[in-house]
Inverse folding.
């Protein structure tokens, strides 16, 4: 009797050992494409060429070097630019990540213009007075060292023509009126009682709000002028130069 029971235990153990967990279904890029078009394309472009968000048409993504990191970014977001996708299931996240990876095979946007000539336009327009490229320039505006990776050509064109439409929270233009007169600049910090800012010359200011006569946040304005007076050729060359700025590769 004992031998029979022991044999039954051995048989059950062998059956369990032979069983393996069912493999998880492979991600479906097609299902991820649907999610991407409805929730991501507004910022990254329908084909991932970039816009408010960075271009995704490259093998290596700066903040997502592997699939685990990409899943985490999709799920948790990147404050304040990218919201968390809390509404997506793990399967949805996997499908979306699979589609994002497939975008590395998509051809980049065709960019007319000459980047070398665009560098001359950039210098001639005094852009380095507000922007840094590879350590050269001033930091009043966003750094452009790798702007060609972070933004697509279409977005750059629109931003040059209508800068106020694409101002991020980090570069909000503010104007205050106090005892020293009117000051306009980029907000660097703000809390309930104070606001700090810096003007185009790089000078920093700190004000107590209770002492100001007026405080305006110019959310739809930019310190950068519109470049709609450039010739068609110069404009294309400038865009080509910005797209060519891809940092250290």
């Amino acid at each position: 009797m004992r031998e029979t029971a022991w044999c039954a235990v051995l048989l059950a153990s062998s059956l369990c050992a032979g069983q393996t967990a069912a493999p998880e279904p492979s991600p479906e890029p097609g299902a991820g494409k649907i999610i991407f078009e409805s929730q991501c394309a507004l910022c990254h472009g329908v084909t991932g060429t970039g816009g408010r968000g960075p271009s995704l048409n490259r093998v290596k993504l700066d903040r997502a070097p592997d699939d685990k990191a990409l899943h985490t970014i999709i799920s948790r977001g990147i404050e304040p630019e990218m919201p968390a996708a809390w509404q997506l299931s793990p399967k949805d996240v996997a499908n979306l990540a699979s589609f994002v990876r497939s975008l590395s095979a998509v051809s980049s946007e065709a960019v007319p213009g000459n980047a070398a000539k665009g560098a001359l336009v950039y210098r001639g327009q005094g852009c380095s007075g507000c922007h840094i490229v590879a350590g050269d320039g001033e930091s009043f505006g966003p750094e452009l060292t790798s702007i060609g990776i972070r933004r697509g050509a279409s977005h750059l064109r629109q931003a040059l023509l209508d800068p106020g439409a694409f101002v991020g929270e980090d570069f909000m233009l503010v104007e205050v009126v106090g005892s020293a007169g009117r000051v306009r600049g980029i907000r660097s910090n703000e809390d309930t009682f104070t606001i700090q800012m810096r003007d185009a010359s790089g000078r920093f200011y700190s004000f107590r709000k209770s002492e100001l006569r007026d405080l305006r946040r110019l959310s739809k304005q930019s310190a950068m002028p519109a470049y709609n007076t450039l010739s068609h050729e110069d404009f294309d060359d400038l865009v080509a130069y910005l797209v060519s700025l891809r940092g250290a590769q």
Observations:
- Confidence is low (pLDDT under 50) at residues 5-16.
- The longest strand covers residues 181-190.
